[in-house]
Amino acid sequence: MEKFTKLTGKAVPFDSINVDTDQIIPAPFLSIMRTEGYQGLLFHRVRRDKAGDMNPDFIFNKEIYADASIIVADRNFGCGSSREGAAWALVDNGFYSVIAPSFGDIHFNNEMNNGMVPVRLDEAVCTDLRAQLHANPGAEITVDLETNTVTAPNGDTHSFEIPDFNRERLLKGLDEIDLTLNYTAQIERFEAQRGQTLGYIDD
Amino acid sequence: MSTPKMMPKTMFQKIWDRHVVLERDDGQILLYVDRHLCHDGSRQGMSKLKAAGHKVRKPAQTYATPDHYRPTNAKTIDDFQDDQMRGIVEELAENAEIFGFHHFGLDSDKQGIVHVVGPEQGITLPGLLMCCGDSHTATHGALGAFAFGIGASEVAHVLATQTIWQRKPKAMRVSVEGTLGFGVSGKDVVLAIIGQIGTAGATGHAVEYAGSVMRDMDMEGRLTVCNMTIEAGGRTGMVAPDEKTFAYCEGREFAPKGDRWDHAVADWRTLPSDEDAVFDTDVTVDGNAIAPMITWGTSPENVVPVTGVVPDPADEPDLNRRKIHEGALTYMGLTPGMRMTDLSVDKVFIGSCTNGRIEDLRAAAAVAKDRRAVVSTLVVAGSVPVKRQAEAEGLDKIFTAAGMEWGEPSCSMCVGMNGDIIQPGQRSASTSNRNFMGRQGEGGRTHLVGPAMAAAAAVTGTFADVRDLMAKK
Ligand code: SF4
Q1: Do B26 and A15 lie within an 8 Å CB cutoff?
Q2: Among A88, A53, A64, A52, which residue's Cα sits nearest to residue A11?
Q3: Which domain does B368 fall in, by range?
Q4: Does residue B287 sit within a domain?
Q5: B321: pLDDT confidence band, cut at 50, 70 and 90?
Q6: Residues in A 42-101 with any Cβ partner in B closer than 8 A
Q7: Is residue A56 part of a domain?
Q8: Residue B307: inside a domain, yes or no?
Q9: Residue B298's closest chain A neighbor by CA?
Q10: Is residue A11 part of a domain?
């Protein structure tokens, strides 16, 4: 996994609530293997009109955001299906951080497992950030994982919380399986003891 | 001398405590996974495992079945028209060979949607911690298991280590009190709950469904309610195991037998929440007031009773929300104030991990009996055992006599990955769980309903109130 320390980049203000992972990447693309890459698939359906052409009004289609790396969203971003393809579509299209008042639980973890930093900030702060970005398209935001702060276009800083475990993994770029395998002795001990208490289960 | 009083615990807390392998200084907890469910979509996690050169730590605790990519007209692997789908289903069988886990393939009499198969085969049991790379894994909580969905990286992690890192969610109790009215099902209950608390209403929580309505509900209904916990944002949903649960589990393939069974039941009786256990969030829902429900928009929280009308965005004070509401109406081709019963339907789907069980098919068949479907209708059992049971009861004959299609067990039109989709602009009555834009096919307009309501839509071509239809019988 790639390391994440500090990111400064253009941020897209995305005003929708309940952006589900079916919107982030439609199901038909999930047959594509991770190693093949998920470039060009982000918001594949919602960024097009009925005829299949790019909808110029959809904010991610605006030229100015072609090199954006942060999204400021509204509540419940990434709800719905557990598909990790949603996180792959985000990273493979250059987005390394999503700021929102709340996230779908599974998607939140999926982002962190792909070197992304999901940032939870108060609804009012998110609304204000989006207003600043709308007023000044192409403005930049900084997400600093070393200080756990977000710096807004107007210079205000907001601190955020992210579990220490995930923070450490992101800062060091550690693979989760390798990390857990360090605890194999504890897992074995648990399994031995489980055999006694849950002896009625046939594995 | 007085004996020290134990802190009262919720059922969730009890099951959680049993599965803690270790807690790190930073508060992150490693939990043990008793049983891991996989399906044809778990291939990304499996390929990650292979690439990293890991083995499956406990193949005997890993169970897999193809569901998302099985075409409803494919009885065997040779019937697949699409090479990619065939390849994906074959890949699962190959992975089962390589890694040695249980596999219920297309030729197995146990195959089906993973969330139907688990409870049906006794893989799902009270008190177990279960994971699956699918968001509807909370389904299994209906039996008193702690079950939750995970992403592909986490699937690889569970396969390699039989554990999962978690932070403890808050505990929430949703008490549905009263008695359900005639023609009201588990699906209506969960849609009413989501309508009340919203799609993020249970975010960060483990939900316990309680109250007289849940106690009175059959296992199939409980499975339906727990299934849609993710649609309220919850990590997991569960119901306290009781005599109904034990009767349901007894004798199933992977459930304990003989002496072990007695031990199991004795243990399971200790699982329900202690009487004075405290929940972080407590919600009460009036079960008496629940009518057959139907969604009108593109989020499961956009729901009204069948007697209701399409809500007016002008009633939404927040401007941003109003815009979203208007967008949903445009997508759905609706105008405010339209009566739900006046909408005409183009396609009906009865099935999925939400409503693809035998009770669901019985409810649909009761409506379809001696009637004709006036719109294209697809009925898909959730598993081979459900399909066989339905056929033994003659339900398939009722459906086909009504002009409905009777397919092979799969996820089918719930997500359209097997090719069963609706066309742009078509309006469906669907017993699945998501009315997201394009979920059932590009431009498709999905209305979520229970199985009896879906059958009513099939035979009338509109969202008829199933209670009127059944009263006429
Ligand atoms: S039936 Fe639908 S929701 Fe259930 S597992 Fe299959 S695709 Fe997912």
Answers
A1: no
A2: A64
A3: 301-471
A4: no
A5: confident
A6: 45-46, 50, 74-76, 79-85, 87
A7: yes
A8: yes
A9: A18
A10: yes
Structure token digits, residue B105: 């393939």
Domain assignment present for residue A130? The answer is: yes
Helix (H, G, I), strand (E, B) or coil at B417: coil
Longest CA–CA span in chain B (Å) reads: 75
Q: Are B233 and B203 in contact (CB under 8 A)?
A: yes
8-state DSSP, B383:
B
What is the spatial distance between Cα B235 and Cα A103, in angstroms, rounded to a whole number? Answer: 12
- Burial (Cβ within 10 Å: 0-12, 13-18, ≥19) of residue B319: exposed
Q: How far is B366 from chain A (nearest CA, A)?
A: 32
When pLDDT is averaged across residues B347-370 and rounded to a whole number, the result is 98
Confidence check: pLDDT of B361 > 80 = yes
Instruction: Tell which of A114, A165, A171, A188 to mutate to test the B interface (max B CBs under 10 Å).
Output: A165
Quote the pLDDT of residue A49: 87
Q: Which helix (H) or strand (E) holds B103?
A: strand B102-103
**Total structural domains within chain A:** 1
Tell the residue nearest (CA) to atom 4 of ligand 1.
B353
| Share above pLDDT 90 across residues of chain B, in percent, rounded to a whole number | 95
**Spatial distance between the Cα atoms of B451 and B232, rounded to a whole number of angstroms:** 20
Runs of H (alpha helix) within chain A: 21-24, 85-92, 105-112, 123-135, 164-172, 176-181, 184-197
Pairing of strands B35-39, B129-132: parallel
Chain B residue closest in CA terms to A168: B26
Q: Which residues of chain A have pLDDT under 50?
A: none
Q: Which two tokens stand for residue B344?
A: 């005409």
Q: Is residue A194 part of a domain?
A: no
CA B299 to each of CA A79, B204, B336, B340, B438: distance values in angstroms, whole numbers, following the listed order: 10, 19, 17, 16, 12
Q: Strands B146-149 and B129-132, how do they pair?
A: parallel
Q: What is the pLDDT of residue B146?
A: 98
Q: What is the C-alpha separation between B280 and B205, in angstroms, rounded?
A: 9
Indicate whether B358 and B397 sit together in one domain. yes
Q: How confident is the model at residue B1 (pLDDT cuts 50, 70, 90)?
A: very low
Chain B partners within 8 Å of A168 (Cβ): 26
Summarize pLDDT for B279-292 with one digit per residue, the tens: 999 999 999 999 99
What does the pLDDT read at residue A203?
Answer: 73
B318 band by pLDDT with thresholds 50, 70 and 90: confident
Locate A63 and state its tokens: 């030229």
Which residues of chain A from 179 to 198 reach within 8 Å of chain B, CB to CB?
A: 180-181, 183-184, 186-187, 190-191, 194, 197-198
> What per-residue confidence (pLDDT) applies to B5?
65
Domain total in chain B: 2
